[in-house]
Amino acid sequence: MTRQFTIAALLLFGVSAGAQVVASHAPTVNMNPASASAPKDAALQVTGKAVARVNGAVLSDRDLLREMFTIFPYARQHSGFPKTIEAQIRQGALDMIIFEELVYQETQRQRLTISAARMSGAEAEFKKQFASQAEFQQFLKAEFNGSRQLFHEKLRRSLLIQKFLKLELDMKAAISQAELQAFYDKNPSKFEHPEAFAIQSISILPPRNASPEVLKEAQARAQEVLRQAKATKSYQEFGLLAEKVSDDDYRVNMGDHKLVELAKLPPEIVKAAHALKPGEVSDMIVAGNNYTLFRLNVHVAAGKTRLEAIKQQLRSDLQKQKYEQLRAELNKRLQKNAKVEVL
Fold first, then answer.
1. Domain residues for 219?
2. What is d(CA 275, CA 263) in angstroms, rounded to the nearest whole number?
3. What is the DSSP secondary-structure string of 325-338?
4. Residue of 32, 34, 29, 33 lying closest to 12 (CA atoms)
5. What is the DSSP string of 186-213?
6. pTM of the entire structure?
7. Which of 39, 124, 150, 336 is the most buried (most CB within 10 A)?
8. Dihedral through CA 323, CA 54, CA 150, CA 75, nearest 10?
9. Tell me: the pLDDT tens digits for 219-253?
């Protein structure tokens, strides 16, 4: 889905009491609050001030920065967020922490619980990110003044959010085979494809305004290359020859153009391709002083892609769309009677 509400995502505590970056998925970062390597960018500093209230529950700049790092983790390496998108990242992060708090409050209203076994398992999994017990204790000290109880409260909150969203979004967003088939049948134009060819090319391209002698040499070279190309027996052999002798830019990729729609190929190439079987090499095609030949690898006739060939990607795309729709509806429902104040 677009946003995975995993323990790591929800337990990104973000910044220590001394503004040192502490990523839950990167515990090797020095977690000493007095570290000289702490970010110096003002945008990365936290004071604990409130940035929003959700039904009276206060969300701080620590929560906001934690989510900003989740959205744009590269800020850790660059000690800040790109100015051109910082406002957008901040707004997205603010919307997310408000949504998470609304979800958490709903889990409380519904009296959802987390079993002791689930708590123990989640804690054990989380602690695997630390190199040692001492490093984990350092983390607890930096983030929770050493309080395991506060850590457990945060962990339980994360697990409750994850549990609720799995029920309300992940499970409901699942696409059945019947839904998949119905979408495919109702949208035939989405799965139609034009005729296309996959080719490898070799080109001999003499310089512009070349002398007659140079042009004669190019012609002779083209004939020799044609002979060698006709002798190749595989994609690999033709590709290695293209890398060695071709003048066009595709030589760096073994002459491979991948799959190209008929409408995007020169008429001369299309005409020659129609006369070839996959694996065959064309004759030389002359355009002015330029010489081109190609190997036909695949010829795809115009038609409709079978559902079996695309069902995995289609199911993923449809699930993402359904997930986002359900999430928007959930957010709207949770906000309906909530008091949300952005400070």
1. 195-301
2. 17
3. HHHHHHHHHHHHT-
4. 29
5. H-GGGGEE--EEEEEEEEE-PPTT--HH
6. 0.64
7. 39
8. 60
9. 999 999 999 999 999 999 999 999 999 999 999 99
